[in-house]
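Per your request, structure below.
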């Protein structure tokens, strides 16, 4: 049986963040994910998870200055100290929230940066993060993101993601495969899933092109969910989409899939 986690950064936005946990549980979700927890004390989030019997399956390392357009620090030369601090902060939250996966966003490549330096910085930072996280039983995820939504993003394809995992060569680094981004950049979703599923630690879904409920766009998610069952994928599927209306009104796909 497939396991779906509500993304509380995008779903249930009808309520304040800390109230979205109860909304997700009431809708039938047993897992939740979100972009960043750092605006709230870990104890406050832990209490919501405990009260509603939810598993926090994923969050991201701090991305730098999000409001200024930064989308991760991992590949940016000269920001290594800030990246390392973000790892320590993520560990403090992950251990308090019993979160077993964190995602390190690659980042936007700085204009004029030396490609070799960017690659070396990226791999070096991931090796550092993987080692630190492994001591706490946490898996490090990397995600290819489309350049239409994030122009200049460093990591953009599944082949590149797989090659990075091989270069880091740590037992706790895995691919995070977001089918929304994958469809925009590459397509051929079924074959990508079959090829990379053994190296995948998390999947995310949304319709294309509007990033609404799965099944409302050009991607046949009912078929892809059957493919994941055939592959015996036992990880979580994060619902990282923006509801087309009220969140609960658009959950027909979820009731059919679970």
């Amino acid at each position: 049986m497939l396991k779906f986690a509500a993304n509380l950064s995008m779903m249930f936005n009808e309520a304040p963040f800390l109230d979205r946990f109860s909304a997700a549980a009431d809708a039938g979700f047993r897992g939740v994910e979100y972009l960043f927890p750092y605006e709230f004390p870990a104890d406050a989030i832990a209490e919501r998870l405990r009260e509603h019997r939810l598993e926090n399956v994923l969050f991201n390392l701090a991305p730098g200055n999000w409001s200024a357009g930064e989308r991760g620090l991992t590949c940016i030369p000269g920001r290594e100290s800030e990246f390392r601090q973000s790892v320590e902060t993520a560990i403090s939250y992950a251990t308090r929230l019993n979160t077993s996966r964190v995602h390190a966003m690659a980042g936007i490549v700085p204009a004029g940066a030396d490609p070799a330096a960017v690659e070396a910085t990226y791999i070096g930072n991931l090796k550092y993060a993987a080692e630190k996280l492994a001591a706490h039983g946490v898996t490090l995820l990397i995600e290819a993101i489309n350049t239409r939504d994030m122009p200049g993003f460093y990591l953009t394809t599944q082949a590149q993601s797989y090659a990075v995992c091989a270069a880091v060569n740590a037992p706790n680094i895995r691919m995070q495969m977001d089918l929304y981004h994958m469809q925009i950049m590459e397509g051929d979703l079924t074959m990508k899933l079959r090829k990379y599923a053994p190296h995948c630690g998390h999947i995310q879904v949304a319709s294309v092109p509007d990033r609404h409920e799965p099944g409302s766009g050009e991607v046949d998610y009912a078929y892809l969910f059957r493919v994941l069952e055939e592959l015996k994928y036992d990880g979580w599927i994060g619902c990282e989409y923006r509801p087309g209306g009220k969140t609960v009104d658009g959950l027909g796909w979820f009731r059919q899939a679970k």
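Residues 3-257 form a domain with the TIM Barrel fold (CATH 3.20.20.150).

Regards,
D.
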